[in-house]
Amino acid sequence: MTTLAPARSPRLRPTVFVLAAVVSVQFGGALAAVLVPLIGASATVTMRLLISAAIMLAVIRPRLRGRSRAAWRSGLSFGAALAGMNFAFYQSLATLPLGVAVTIEFLGPLTLSAVLSRRARDIVAVAAALCGIVLISQALTVPWAELDLAGIAWAALAGAGWAAYILGSRSAGRHFDRLDGLAVALVVAAVLVTPVGVLTAHAPALTWGVLGAGVGIAMLSSVVPYSLELLALRAIPPKVFGILLSLEPAVAALAGLLVLSQALTGLQLVGMGLVVAASAVVMVGGGAPELKEDAAADPAAGPVTRGE
């Protein structure tokens, strides 16, 4: 009995870390959805990025001196992708249920992995995911005039930003140590979105309750999941990591139900299942070779596909 625990613990612990990160980020998204109606989507994402950047800078203390121009270009592009991804996602939360927004957004990294892998099976998986997106968007059951086309467009744009974030993470990982690139990108993203967030914020402006919610969102959506994922990627293959992340739409639907009372229809759940299954199929094959090589060189810069 005593010999089994040490053998299984090293395998179980990183899996628990990834699952905890998935739960953390999706319940952070649910908390953000609560704050969006109060201060606006732009102000909410501004609070998250500002607080996240401050915490990560204090914890990581990235080395800024002696960086090359290529490194700074990489950090700036990474930050721009991070800003666009989060800005679009929070705009979608203003009108879409959390599970729907995350599922549509998930199409971005899924498509990127399939394109880079160039496997016919992955292309078929993406096609199945597209069918799932049609179901979850209710395009077949709701009149076109009643569809939330703006919310769907924002979520799709967030998916494109997520794909750009993955590529930016790979590039930053080649120029920065550990999570230095992420800390720099968070600062860049915060600088980019703050003017819009300040100008569009509506009452109540900044109260202790709003500030506390902002800290909670920053911790749940950024600090905690990034840290847990970094620890997990040191112990499990990127393929396993990717498969576990494919559960995010389902966890988002659960968070939306428990926190926001957002129940999905049967067809929407079927569509979500198609997206989750398609993501698992793509990841089981090992994902794109380029992503796997980057992860081996720098676990923090490879397959960390945190989108919201």
From TrEMBL:
<dbReference type="InterPro" id="IPR037185">
    <property type="entry name" value="EmrE-like"/>
</dbReference>
<comment type="similarity">
    <text>Belongs to the EamA transporter family.</text>
</comment>
<keyword id="KW-1003">Cell membrane</keyword>
<feature type="transmembrane region" description="Helical">
    <location>
        <begin position="72"/>
        <end position="90"/>
    </location>
</feature>
<feature type="transmembrane region" description="Helical">
    <location>
        <begin position="179"/>
        <end position="199"/>
    </location>
</feature>
<feature type="transmembrane region" description="Helical">
    <location>
        <begin position="96"/>
        <end position="116"/>
    </location>
</feature>
<feature type="transmembrane region" description="Helical">
    <location>
        <begin position="151"/>
        <end position="167"/>
    </location>
</feature>
<keyword id="KW-0812">Transmembrane</keyword>
<feature type="transmembrane region" description="Helical">
    <location>
        <begin position="205"/>
        <end position="228"/>
    </location>
</feature>
<feature type="transmembrane region" description="Helical">
    <location>
        <begin position="123"/>
        <end position="145"/>
    </location>
</feature>
<keyword id="KW-0472">Membrane</keyword>
<dbReference type="Pfam" id="PF00892">
    <property type="entry name" value="EamA"/>
</dbReference>
<protein>
    <submittedName>
        <fullName>EamA family transporter</fullName>
    </submittedName>
</protein>
<keyword id="KW-1133">Transmembrane helix</keyword>
<feature type="domain" description="EamA">
    <location>
        <begin position="150"/>
        <end position="283"/>
    </location>
</feature>
<feature type="transmembrane region" description="Helical">
    <location>
        <begin position="240"/>
        <end position="260"/>
    </location>
</feature>
<feature type="transmembrane region" description="Helical">
    <location>
        <begin position="266"/>
        <end position="284"/>
    </location>
</feature>
<feature type="transmembrane region" description="Helical">
    <location>
        <begin position="42"/>
        <end position="60"/>
    </location>
</feature>
<dbReference type="InterPro" id="IPR000620">
    <property type="entry name" value="EamA_dom"/>
</dbReference>
<dbReference type="InterPro" id="IPR051258">
    <property type="entry name" value="Diverse_Substrate_Transporter"/>
</dbReference>
